[in-house]
Structure formats: C-alpha cells, structure tokens
Amino acid sequence: MNELLGALRAVHIGCAMLLFGEAVFALAVRPPPDQAGAVRWRVDRRFLAVARWSLAALVVSAIAWLIVQAAAMSGKPLAEAATLRSIGLVLGSTVFGAAFSVRAVLVVALAIVLVAWQRRQKSARSREFMIIHSGLAAALLGSLAWTGHAVAGDPSEAFLRIGADVAHLLAAGAWIGALPALVFHLGSTVSPQRAAMAGRFSRLGVASVGVLAASGLVNAWYQVGGIPGLIGTGYGRLLVVKLAIFGALLCLAAMNRGLAAGALDSGGGQRLHRLRVNAIGEIALGAALLAVLAPLGTSVPAIHDPVVWPFDATLELAPIRESAWQQVVVAAAAVAACAAAAVLVAGAIAWPPRLSIGAAAGVVASLALIGIILAVPAYPTTYQLSPVPFSAQAVATGAASYDEHCSRCHGHDGAGASLDLRDIVPERREGDLFWTIAHGLPEGRMPAFGSQLSAATIWRLTQFLDAQVAARNALALSDRLRPSLPVPAPDFAYEIPGMPQQSLRQQEGNQVALLVFYSLPSSLARLRDLAALEPAYAKAGARVIALPMLDSPAASAGQVGGAGVKILASAGPAVARAYRLFAGKAASRTVATGAVANGDGVANGSTGAGNPRHIEYLVDRFGLLRSRATGLPGAQQSDAMLAKVETLARETREPPALWAHRH
Q1: What are 152-191's pLDDT values in tens digits?
Q2: 343 is in which domain, residue-wise?
Q3: SS3 (DSSP) at 312
Q4: Domains in the chain: how many in total?
C-alpha cells in the first residue's frame, strides 16, 4: 500500500511541477513569439497541449491517490475504501482532505482558464492568460506542502516548515518542470534566439538551485536532525540517494551554464546541441528524483525513527578536551582543509589539473587526520534516545534494577571501587550506556545483561544513571535562582482533589512549578502560608504542588486551610524517592540504597539521618530545576520565593540544550 501511495504521490507531484514549470518557462525564458497571430498561436498551442495532458494526468493521479489514502487510513481493501462514506471521512476530517478540497478548486480554475484561452486562440491576450495560469499552477504545486511531513510537528514552527516546503516545491518546479520546454524550444527556434534563451534559463536555474539548497537545509533540520539520522535511518539513506541525484543534476547544470555562456559569446550551434542533450539528461535525472520521492514521502522521518549506527566508530570532541596540543592540531587541520577546498574550487575553474589533484589530496588528508584524532568507539544504538520518558517512576524503577544487578560492583552510591560511574556516565550517550549494559564489555570486564533484563528495563536503568549525573549537577543548586543547569526535572503524574489528573510536563512552556516535599507536623505552617498565597502564585504563572515525604503522612485540606485548598497533591512513592536525588549528597546516597523493591519496582526506604525534612524546588517553564531550598523557610525566604517565580515566568528564551544528547 505504501509503495502504491508513494508512486501516485510522485506522479502527481511531477504533473504539478510540469504545469508550473511550463508556465514559468513561457513567461521568463521562452523567446517572444512573432507578432503575427498565427506564429503566436503555434507557440501557445504546444503549451496548451502540454498543460491539458498534464492537468488530465494530475486529476487521474489525484483521484487514485485519494482512494488509496482512504484505504490506508481505514485499513480496508481498496475496493471497500472506494466508497463515498470513506472518501467523505478523509475529505472532511483530515488535513490531507482539506488540502485535497482546496486543490480540487484550483484544478477546476485551471481547467476554466485553459478552455477560455483555447477559445480565444489568436487573441493578443495570451500573456494575461499565461500569468493567471502560472499563479494557479504555483498555488496548486505549493499546496502539496500540506500533504507531506511538513504539517506534523510543533505548531509554533509550522510557518517555517511549511514555508520551506512550499519554496522547495516551487523552485523544483521552476527548474525541473521547465526542462521539457527548454529541450523543445532548443530544437525548434533559430540560433540567436536559442542562445539568448539558454542564457535566461541559466539564470533561472541558478536562482532555483539557491532556493532549493536553502529550503532543503530547513527541511533536513526538521525531518533528519543531523548526520546520525542521515546515515542511520531508512529515511536518511533515501535522502542521501536524493542528494546524490541532485548533485549529478548540479554537475549537468554547471556544464550547461558554461555552454550557454559560450553560445552567447559565439552563437555556436554545436554548444547549443550539447546543451540540449545535457538538458535531456537533466530530465532523466529529474524523473529519478521523483522516483525517490515515492518511498521518501511515505517513510517515517529520520528524526522520529531510531538511529541504527552502521559504523564501529564516530566523531566526538571528547578526545581533545584535555589535550591542548590535539586541539591545535585539529584546528590547523580544519584550516588546511578549508584552504585546500578553496584552491580546489578555484582550480576547477581556471588552474592546471595537477593543482586541483593536489588540493583534493590536501582536503582528504586533512579530514583524515581530524577523523583519526576525534574517532571514538560507537555501537548500533549510540545515537538512540531512550523511548522511556525521563520520569520519576523510570528513575525509581531504574534505581531498584541498579541495586539488584549493579551495586555489587559499582557501589550503592554509583561510586564503587572498580569504576566511578559519576565520571564515566556524563561522557556516554544513552545509546552507549544501553549497549554496554545489554552486551557487556570485552575480556569479562562487565557481564552482559541483555538476556536477563528487557530493553525497557535497561532504558530505565540508563534513566537512573542520567539522574545520577543530574544529581551531581544539582549540587550547585541553592535557594538562590541560578542560570540554567543541566538538571532536568523528572516527570510525574499527580492528582489534586476536585481536579483531573495532571503531569509536571503537561504545562511545560507555560507555567513554572513550585514542588514542595513536606513532613508533618513540622511543615504545617509552611503549607498554610502556601495555601494562602496560591492565588498570588497562580497570577504570577506558577503551580504549587505539595507532596509528602516517604515517611510522612499526607496533609488534609482541613489541616491546611479548608476545602478550597489547591496545593495538596497525591502521587506514587516514586516521586518523593526520585526527587530526593536532588536534595543533596546525603539524600542522593540514600536513593541508591534500600534493597527491597515493592510491587511497582520501587525500592522502599525511609529518610535517613542528615536528610532534609522539607524541600522546595523551582522548576522553570522548560522543565529544568533552577533552585532548591532545604528546610523550612523564614518569612523573608517565603517572600523571595514568590519573587523568583515572577522572574522565571518572565523568561522567554529557551535555555541551551546542555543535555540534548540525553533527553
């Protein structure tokens, strides 16, 4: 089904590109027809014939695409999906259907313009019809952006994603869609006109390539994300094929630009003949490009697909962080590579071939030196991110797994005699940790746990190790508001009486959270103050979430301030246990102990000596811990907390992705 869907989509895009490209060629490239009406009509007649057949093929492919799309969405066979009810559901309840309806209106308008134009025949108003046709064809081609991957993702960035996709489609249509017209007119016009036409098409091609490159980079950013996604996913490898074809197109286009410039200078017919042959080659490569679009349009974008790294090494900056001389070598090699690349480009234009060969060797040697220095071991899962969310439950369950399987070698606090995990884990990606735990280390340095633990359990274990790193970073937290640190707050679900279940991340990007972990009876006065100030916190843009410590009973609304209290929440014991990691060194050490796990996989344990009885965390709008206050605050500290909330609520710039490779 996906193969058929992709093929129909590619045919449809090809027809739309041809409709638009022919119009662009007629307006911007084609030599003006003779003023005699008969000559003008012969030129326009070919355009009308191509437009009619392209529009007919577009309509047929659109209907087939709609039926197959309805079958794919409903899961029914094609025969059952080709009903008015199924098609009506697609048209009325999906973005694809809305885009299809708009496109149907544009197709009808195009058909009306073509019929009216044909009836006028030798009228002098053919240019006005051409302008109307090109506008409708541009809208028809650009609207295909609403049927692809660009419509998915963050709504706040939809304008940029869809805009880049529209620009990409229009640039491709203006270049590749206009090639058949170029081939036709190069074989049917007189030599001076052909030379001028080739020059105009060359300028059109340069502009199109620039737009294609810029919009393609934007699309790659949203759909691929980086080199790992380009190499390690099916979508990325298809995109590499597309880029290879695009590179071949660029080579032919560069040759044609040189031929066009030479033809303008000398009017040489031989150059124009070679240009026409090359243009036919460009059409063939354009058809191959459309063939790649078939599976590309139905594949899961690389950014949403787990990366399977195919090499046993990758490049990282970690090897040179502690070595000044290696940093100097890498910087010098990078400068040499750039200089050699500049010489290579210049040499390709005007200098002797041996200089170009030397420059190419310099580029290869410099890049090889950089690769040798920055190479580190890699595994198939190196660039995979945990499918298990970074939540309190995952951290607590991972702590229980760590205590059962890892603590004998690595110690109860993650710092055993054989290996200091707190130094190793920050330098490792989640995917590396997963592979090491599942497959072990060579020479018996660490056993493999893949046969004992499920993949989900191993990912939870990596989340606990990540939380250990965050806990180390949290040592810098205090009751003062600090700049963003890589201390992500584990997500958790909670309930407040009279309100639906919520989660910490549910309001991410909109609200600050004040997390209060209390112990009774010592925290009652503070809870009453918070309940009275809750409207002020809400007005400032913050939620107050009060949860009991593991060894404390839960406070009741009657104890705190009556039935209208909105700060007392209930959650599983994993929440208090996970957040104790960030309370300080003594509390962090306690979290990794407590050997007995309950039915939820969460280790039980009580607050040990030296652990705080009352903790308050401020979580900013981007899910990072920004301050920590241990112990009951005084009156001045209480007022300062509200001021800090107001400061965080005013922050508009998202913090740097210091932990982007981990979460």
Answers
A1: 777 777 788 889 889 999 999 998 888 888 888 777 665 6
A2: 313-377
A3: coil
A4: 4
d(CA 229, CA 574): 34
Asked, for residue 430, whether it belongs to a domain, the answer is no
Whole-angstrom distance, CA of residue 160 vs CA of residue 145 = 12
Distances (CA, A) of 448 to 314, 433, 435, 615: 23, 12, 9, 38
Whether the pLDDT of residue 264 is over 80: the answer is no
Confidence check: pLDDT of 591 > 60: no
Q: Do 260 and 237 meet the contact criterion of CB atoms below 8 Å apart? A: no
Residue 51 inside a domain? The answer is yes
- Residue corresponding to tokens 């220095």: 373
Q: What is the pLDDT of residue 435?
A: 92
The pLDDT value recorded for residue 418 is 42
Task: Output the pLDDT for position 661.
Answer: 39
How far apart CA 191 and CA 198 sit, in angstroms, is 10
| Cα distances (angstroms) measured from residue 160 to each of 133, 166, 227 | 27, 10, 21
Q: Hunting for tokens 């600090």 — which residue is that? A: 482
> How far, CA to CA in Å, does 82 sit from each of 2, 94, 190?
17, 17, 51
Closest of 285, 282, 258, 284 to residue 272, by C-alpha: 258
Find the mean pLDDT for residues 359-368: 86
Same domain, 514 and 628: yes
DSSP-assigned letter for residue 566: -
pLDDT at 266 over 80: no
Rounded CA separation 308/310 (Å): 6
Give the confidence band of 109 by pLDDT, cuts at 50, 70, 90: very high
Of the pLDDT bands very low, low, confident and very high (cuts 50, 70, 90), residue 31 is low
User: Is residue 548 one of the residues assigned to a domain?
Assistant: yes
More confident site: 4 or 496: 496
Rounded to whole angstroms, the Cα distance separating 321 from 595 reads: 38
The contacts found for 356-363 with CB under 8 angstroms, 24 or more apart, are 362/336, 362/337, 363/337
321 with 270, same domain? no
State the greatest distance between any 2 C-alpha atoms of the chain, in Å, as a whole number.
101
In Å, what is the CA distance from 491 to each residue of 331, 431, 477? 41, 21, 19
For residue 441, list its beta bridge partners.
446
Q: What is the 3-state secondary structure (H, E, C) of 496-541?
A: CCCCCCEEHHHHCCCCEEEEEEECCCCCHHHHHHHHHHHHHHHHHC
Per-residue pLDDT at 285 exceeds 60: yes
- The three-state secondary structure class of 603 is strand
Residue 103 resides in a domain: yes
Strand 512-518, strand 615-619: pairing: antiparallel
Residue 347 CA: distances (Å) to CA of 55, 261, 333, 361, 510? 46, 19, 20, 13, 55
The answer on pLDDT for 74 being more than 80 is no
